[in-house]
Amino acid sequence: MGIQSSPIPAPPADAGTSAREAPAAIERQIGFERLSSLYAITEPMLFGGFAFTVVTGVLLASSVPRLLLATWLAIKIALTAARLVDGRLFLRDRHRSLRQRHWKSRFVAGVVLDSVSWGLLSALCMPTADPAINGVLLAALVAVASAGAIALSADRLTSGLSMVLVLGPLVEQQALTPTLLARYTAAGLVIYGALLFVEARNSHRRFTEAMRLRFENAAIAEERRRALVYAEHSNAAKTRFLASVSHELRTPLNGIIGMTQLVAVETLSTLQRQRLDVLRHSAEHLVNVIGDLLDLSRIEFDRIELNAQPTLIAQTVRDVTDLLQPVAEERDLAFEVIFDLGLPAAALMDASRVKQVLHNLIGNALKFTARGGVGVAVAMSDGLLRFRVSDTGEGIPPEAIERIFDAFEQGPSSTAPARSGAGLGLTISRRLARAMGGDVTCRSVPGVGTTFEFTIAFRPTPRTPTPRPSLSEELAAAGEASAEPVARVGRVLVVEDNEVNALVVRGMLEQMGVDAELAVDGEQALARMGAAAFDLVFMDCQMPVLDGWEATRLWRARETRLRQKQRLPIVALTASAAAGERERCLEAGMDDYLSKPFSREALGELVDRYLAV
């Protein structure tokens, strides 16, 4: 099966490129926002200005020649209509942001013509014979100049032009009038115009700063959004890649490990058995590395699954220490396990994850200790279960203690083989411990030894599980049982498209005395299940023609349709270790789940569970 991929968004722009391009883009955005705000205020200004024009015309009717006044009013009406049309055209232009220079030129031209029309009022109509009319005109022009300067302050050039063109002719007219009052008025208008210009400039600066802050924040937010999307897609692609590669590796590994288990029960020479053990251990090590990579990926995405169940604390620890006791004996190391007297009998915890962390810590201690011994102490204090693993190894330098918890990092050692392991064990152990409400910490004295403390939150359980035999007792019992194999009664169908894996499963079943038949895909499996009675089906999930999930759904639908009283047990066989794979199989109607590569013992447990012995 090939590795499928999906398109990944382009990565965020390089920081240097962004730094060069961002200011220019932001300036363009500010320019367009400035132009849009000018056009947005045009319509209310024009309607207000037209009303003011009518009032001014009425006041001037008795003091200004009718033809002159009519001409001025006609010009104002034409300019107002033209600017209104221009504003509507601007709003209809879908590409106006790309034609800023064009629209700004039109807007400035409209403002200039409108301002000139107001400025001409003082040049053509003042002074009149009526001082009151002169005062009204002066006040009107100052009001128009003030309103224009403030309303147009988003653009400094337009605001300044409007003010000069409206007040300029009035200042000139007052300055040339040979009276003290007129010259005093001219001076006052100049001072007022200067103050108005300063205020308009400040308003322009505030507008620009506000827009720049807005667009810079928007640019930062967009850059972060793109970076987040890219990271999410990259991580999703990494997860899919790991899941797919894991499946592709687990399938042949199941064949390798399965075949070694089949051959192991045959008569072999000592050398052949040693070579077979090397092959099996190498394959199992690769399986562990794949499992570590998948665990790290799940932890990074906060997808780690914890299955807390009532668990015997001491027995959980003994399961690990009994398994590693032979390693200590082989290395001639003392191995001691101490349980505190106040330790509770049971707790609510994920036993498999606790074992995973303990196996890593104790395994490391044994691996990195050449002389002396390893001790395991279990106690409870401050609401935490504490597992201490101490060794008499060469120790870890102080500067390396925190670094060993980083992914793919390994502590310096002359004891263990160089680069032994992938360097993920402590990273995963610490993150698992934290997911369980605790932590993994380290204290070390170079030349003396190291102590790792693994803690989890203690959660009391209302019931204490029934103790089961220890690992050593189970192995002894298994040895006695293997001396006289018991044949299982039943007929099993193995649905597997991989020829090697099919041979492995069939071979293991035949060694157990089980009659097994093969099918290579879901369609063939349904045909055989419908034609003959089977007591158990081992169903691969990913197959050509018809996959295992759909085949199971179709079979369950058939059972319901025919109202069959006896449900046929179907167990999933899959090389996928992706999160949610078990749930997917159970939802499809399967009864159990066995992940490849699997051991002969694990297969035997399922056979015993579903077949009559």
UniProtKB/TrEMBL annotation:
The entry's function note states: Member of the two-component regulatory system BvgS/BvgA. Phosphorylates BvgA via a four-step phosphorelay in response to environmental signals.
Segments forming domain Histidine kinase: 244-460
UniProt keyword list:
Membrane, Phosphoprotein, Signal, Transmembrane, Transmembrane helix, Two-component regulatory system, Virulence
PANTHER family membership:
HYBRID SIGNAL TRANSDUCTION HISTIDINE KINASE J
Q: What Enzyme Commission number does this protein have?
A: 2.7.13.3
The protein in question is named Virulence sensor protein BvgS
**What is the source species?**
Scleromatobacter humisilvae
Record CDD domains: HATPase_EvgS-ArcB-TorS-like, HisKA, REC_hyHK_CKI1_RcsC-like
- For this UniProt entry, which segments traverse the membrane? 38-61, 67-86, 135-154
Q: Which lineage ranks, top first, belong to the organism behind this chain?
A: Bacteria, Pseudomonadati, Pseudomonadota, Betaproteobacteria, Burkholderiales
Classification via Pfam families: HATPase_c (PF02518), HisKA (PF00512), Response_reg (PF00072)
Q: Which residues carry this modification: 4-aspartylphosphate?
A: 540
Say yes or no: keyword ATP-binding present.
no
Reaction catalyzed: ATP + protein L-histidine = ADP + protein N-phospho-L-histidine
Name the domain of life: Bacteria
